[in-house]
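Q: Could you fold this chain for me?
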Amino acid sequence: MSLPTLSFGALGSFGVADLVDIVFTSILVYYLLLLIRGTRAVQIMLGLFVLLIVLAVSNLLHLLVLATVMQYLLLGTAVTLPIVFQPELRRGLEQIGRGRFFARPSYPDEAAAAQQVAIISDAAFVLGRNHIGALIVIEQQTGLREYVESGTALDAQLSLDLLLAIFNKTSPLHDGAVIVRDLKIEGAACFLPLSENQVAAERHIGTRHRAAVGLSEQTDAVVVVVSEESGAVAVARAGRLSVHIDDRERLEKVLGAIVRPPRRTREAQAGLLANLIARLSRVNNPSEKLRT
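A: Sure. Below is the predicted structure, expressed as structure tokens.
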């Protein structure tokens, strides 16, 4: 009879503050998992989980030496976690600063985005056919002002002729990246950070491709890269480099899906608070439930 009494006592002490605590903790854990999904942090977390299991088993079996070693190992690992997870922490703080956790993301005007994608796609394949290397960065939510300042600020209207002129081998601005925001070329000859990803290094990709991947690791920008040797066109996004895109229409579709997502996708990516409010309103509205 003592067990039911204890359980009812625990339920009796459960209040609104406890419910709020559980909800917000669950939301925090959920977004942390989204933050590390698809990154090397997943393997690191699995490794830490294995170490915790070994520590628990050693304590259970009273293996004092092993337990002591594992405790010091986990302590040292905890100290180095901010260094190991530096890219993920930086990306998470940027998302919080942009309000992407709880706000509906903003998208460029559809007509402007379509024009931007068409111009960049045309330029990429013209440059590729002439074996002229190029890096074209499409700015998204994360501001790229620090990278613009590393090169030459232009603030010029985006056009095919201007892109071809910038990347012409005789141009003083050809060695570097062009950063595009909406229908403006913000800067040219900009320096981008190289990727520190070991997988990218093992693929024996060139410096231009490593720079494209490196910027996409640190920001949400989309980078179109044209190989000077082969003329192949690829797209870097979220720390990943696509396979070679050998068709202009396909490149336009890929960029269009990223820069200008379809309407259903935009609606599905609404912020967490907007989704919760919409669901609660449907629950409290019987006629809405009948229509659905």
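A (continued): Residues 2-98 form one domain.
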